[in-house]
Amino acid sequence: MTSSPTPPSDGAAGAAEGTVIGLPTPAFSPLYQQIKGLILQSLQSGEWKPGEAIPSEMDLAARYRVSQGTVRKAIDELAAENLLVRRQGKGTFVATHAETHVQYRFLRLMPDAGDIQSEGPAERDIIDCKRLRATAEIARALALRTGDSVLQVRRVLAFAGRPTILEDLWLPGTPFKGLTAERLSDYHGAMYALFETEFGVRMVRAEEKIRAVLPDASQAALLKISKSTPLLSVERIAYTYNDVPMELRRGLYLTDTHHYRNVLS
Amino acid sequence: MTSSPTPPSDGAAGAAEGTVIGLPTPAFSPLYQQIKGLILQSLQSGEWKPGEAIPSEMDLAARYRVSQGTVRKAIDELAAENLLVRRQGKGTFVATHAETHVQYRFLRLMPDAGDIQSEGPAERDIIDCKRLRATAEIARALALRTGDSVLQVRRVLAFAGRPTILEDLWLPGTPFKGLTAERLSDYHGAMYALFETEFGVRMVRAEEKIRAVLPDASQAALLKISKSTPLLSVERIAYTYNDVPMELRRGLYLTDTHHYRNVLS
DNA sequence: CAGTGGTCTAGACCACACT
DNA sequence: GTGTGGTCTAGACCACTGC
Question: Do the chains contact at B207 and A82, CB–CB below 8 Å?
Answer without folding.
Answer: no
